[in-house]
Design goal:
Length: 541
């Protein structure tokens, strides 16, 4: 009977094992499918949020995407329509490549690339045809040597020209296209008989691609680089104004309010000046592309785009001071809030006036009008005077009057640490035995004591430094002194910003300021000054 029970139990266990393995595999597959479906849902949601965010930040991106798709469809007709394909053949692919490479987000960038590509193709084709015409008059070996020498010399000269500053800035892409087209035509002409037909087909295909790109960029919802540069200058002024206001308010606010703001959103101070610090290459690129654009404004003025670059450089110098002001909020040693409260009102009023001036500058550039004669109001000077008076009314905070007591406290602190070190780490050489075992034991203990001493010194050094700094009686006012000096430096740098903006308005012929009417007709005349550096280059319209 025991055997039967054992056999039954064994049978039941075997059956359970055979059914359990597929069940386990099935459960694992279900778990994997659930994990995969969850990842796909998260990926889809993330992808949709990214698409929505990109379109919401700048709706012109959607328009540009549709323009590129339409251009590609139009040039694809050279392949899809039979009569057109018979005319161009496989050279029609050059039209597609031209659209992909040339069509950019702004009209200026498209003009720059399109004209560079067309000019490079024409020059390369003409020169390649001339080289081939001369080479065909020679024998086969001499022809090969002549073509190789021409490729070497022209390739070397064209590549070296790319290092010229003016060529690199304006025609670098055209030189690359010249090298590519010249080598393709010249080298292939050694094996292909009808080179002239190849040149014609590629030139016509590239011309069609460039024409479609220029038409879409200039006439169908055009996006101007000059407008982007203009609007980015306005945005940088507004960002700096918001950063200064938020920085001063945070300096005098309670820590609890600051923690709540940090948890709720990103730092508004950093967000305001970040775009200014990263704007150098963007401003130069937009100014270059804007110089290629035709005059599209209502009055067809030739705007000095390089002056916008100068305004951006002054704003970056201004932004460095704002960064230093922001750093005062994150220093290790801070002025007590009881001391800050004594200077809160003049500092906030001073920051408010600077913010007001920057916002007014941004508004004037946006409307293309001159600055108000009272942009630096009397309230700004009054706030500066009040801050100076408040600092002078607290001389003990900044000058100190208990130097002897401070010195004695520091000496006592140093003597206490010295006594502690002597008591804990002192070694009496008379107690050291002279036998070898005692000497080795003493040496081992000495090494251990030196390691302990070094560890304690490393741990004690920052504490001693902080004690030494905080023991200075005027240390509580030092952080605020730095904050106040940077605030005054911002006011001083504001004059340079106003000067550059006024120079921009004078050269660009902004309308005169009138507080009663925002839609004033232009009454200024172009000043008789030398603005050749700000003129459009000879290649522009």
């Amino acid at each position: 009977m025991a055997t039967k029970v054992h056999v039954g139990m064994e049978t039941e266990m075997n059956g359970s094992g055979r059914n359990g393995v597929p069940e386990m595999v099935k459960n694992n597959w279900k778990k994997r499918l659930l994990d995969f479906s969850g990842k796909m849902k998260r990926f889809t949601g993330c992808l949709w949020r990214t698409i929505w965010k990109a379109g919401r930040e700048d709706p012109r991106r959607i328009i540009h995407a549709f323009k590129v798709g339409l251009c590609l469809t139009l040039v694809s007709l050279l392949y899809l329509i039979e009569p057109l394909f018979k005319s161009f053949g496989t050279s029609a692919i050059w039209a597609v490549m031209t659209v992909v490479v040339v069509l950019e987000f702004t009209a200026g960038a498209t003009l720059c690339k399109g004209l560079n590509r067309g000019l490079g193709t024409v020059l390369a084709g003409s020169l390649a045809f001339l080289i081939n015409y001369i080479a065909t008059r020679s024998e086969s070996v001499v022809r090969a040597v002549f073509i190789g020498a021409a490729v070497f010399l022209i390739g070397t000269a064209a590549t070296y020209m790319r290092f010229f500053p003016y060529i690199k800035k304006n025609y670098d892409y055209g030189v690359v296209i010249f090298l590519l087209t010249f080598n393709l035509i010249t080298v292939s002409s050694y094996r292909v008989e009808n080179v002239l037909k190849i040149v014609h087909d590629r030139f016509y295909a590239i011309s069609i691609g460039c024409a479609i790109c220029l038409f879409m960029s200039l006439l169908v919802f055009p996006i101007w680089s000059g407008e982007d540069l203009h609007n980015s200058t306005v945005g940088k002024l507004e960002g700096l104004a918001k950063s200064i206001e938020a920085c001063v308010n945070e300096y005098f606010n309670d820590p609890e309010i600051k923690e709540n703001q940090d948890k709720s959103s990103e730092d508004p101070i950093y967000k305001g000046y970040k775009a200014v610090l990263d704007s150098k290459s963007i401003d130069e690129t937009l100014a270059l592309y804007a110089s290629w654009e035709p005059r599209h404004s209502r009055h067809c003025y030739r705007f000095p785009w390089q002056q916008y670059v100068k305004v951006g450089a002054v704003l970056r110098q201004f932004g460095y001071t704002v960064v230093a002001l922001h750093g005062c909020l994150q220093t290790e040693i801070q002025t007590p809030r009881s001391v800050r409260a004594r200077f809160k009102d003049p500092c906030i009023r001073l920051a408010g006036e600077v913010t007001k001036a920057l916002m007014e500058l941004a508004n004037n550039i946006r409307r293309r009008r001159h600055c108000s004669p009272e942009i630096l109001s009397d309230h700004l000077h009054e706030a500066l005077q009040d801050l100076d008076t408040a600092i002078k009314s607290q001389p003990r905070l900044f000058l100190g009057s208990k130097k002897n007591q401070t010195t004695s406290n520091m000496l006592a602190l140093a003597a206490a640490h010295a006594a502690r070190y002597k008591q804990d780490h002192g070694v009496s050489l008379a107690s050291v035995k002279t036998d070898s075992s005692a000497f080795l034991e003493w040496k081992r203990k000495r090494v251990g004591r030196e390691e302990a001493k070094e560890n304690e010194r490393k741990a004690l050094r920052p504490q001693l430094s902080k004690i030494a700094i905080t023991s200075l009686e005027f240390s509580e006012a030092l952080p605020f002194a730095a904050f106040a000096s940077l605030l005054v430096e911002i006011v001083a740098r504001l004059d340079h910003v106003i000067e550059e903006v006024e120079e921009l308005g004078r050269i660009a012929c902004y309308k005169e300021f009138n507080p009663d009417d925002d839609d004033i007709s232009v009454t200024c005349k172009r000043p008789p000054v030398d603005v050749t550096k700000n003129q459009l280059p000879s290649h522009a319209f």
